[in-house]
Amino acid sequence: MRLNVTVAQAAARASTAPLVRASLLVLGGSLLLAASAWVRVPMWPVPMTLQTMAVLLIGLTYGSRLAGATVLAYLLEGAAGLPVFAGGQTLATVGPTFGYLVGFLLAATVAGALAERGWSRRPMLLVAALLIGEVLIFAPGLAWLDVGYVHAWDRTLALGLLVFLPGEAAKLALAAVLASFLPRPGRE
After folding, report:
1. Beta strand 48-49 with 40-41: parallel, antiparallel or unpaired?
2. What is the mean pLDDT of each run of 10 residues along the chain (188 residues)?
3. Is residue 2 part of a domain?
4. Contacts of 20 by beta carbon, 8 Å cutoff, 6+ apart
5. Are the C-beta atoms of residues 138 and 100 closer than 8 Å to each other?
6. Residue pair 120/139 in contact by the 8 Å Cβ criterion
């Protein structure tokens, strides 16, 4: 009888181990996103942070589902009132940056899906995955910024995209280098 209990206990532990690992990765990734929000260059209406790089690296290393869960957890932390966004803001106070936060979820999930298909293993595909991720961050960010705050597409592009391009280029280059050293998801 003792053998059956031990086998059952071992089976229970084996089935919870992946869940514990995934939970720890989600927590760690959401903490990384929160920390990267605090490394910022104050700009108006949207600050420059390290979050875009962190989001893309999470996607490339976690895969689509785990990366999506991580960014969703991060957004829920902000919705719960935790000061996880740039400048210690919560989801209720982010204003012009809300669209970019939506883009984080899209970018992490898609970058993860591309990594699962091997895009992070070949330099040109890795750069393409990073650029696709950037587009997925900036498209909803610019749309939200224009509709809700700026109301002039030329000013929206100037304030919400063009000013960020040099910094984003540097972050993408660093992300490409870092991604080559980080673990990569395989096909599920």
Report:
1. antiparallel
2. 58 76 96 95 91 98 97 96 90 91 98 96 96 98 97 97 97 95 73
3. no
4. none
5. yes
6. no
Identify whether 16 is part of a domain: no
- Whether residue 18 lies inside any domain: the answer is no
Q: Which 8-state DSSP code applies to residue 81?
A: T
Cis amide bond preceding 45, omega within 30: yes
Total tally of structural domains belonging to the chain: 1
What are the b/e assignments for 84-107, b being 16+ CB within 10 Å?
Answer: bbbeebebeebebbbbbbbbbbbb
Task: Pull the structure tokens for residue 145.
Answer: 């910024």
Q: What pLDDT sits at residue 65?
A: 97
pLDDT for the residue numbered 2: 54
Domain limits for position 60: 23-179
Helix count (H) and strand count (E) of the chain?
7, 2
| CATH number of the structural domain spanning residue 77 | 1.10.1760.20
Considering the domain boundaries, does residue 188 fall inside one? Answer: no
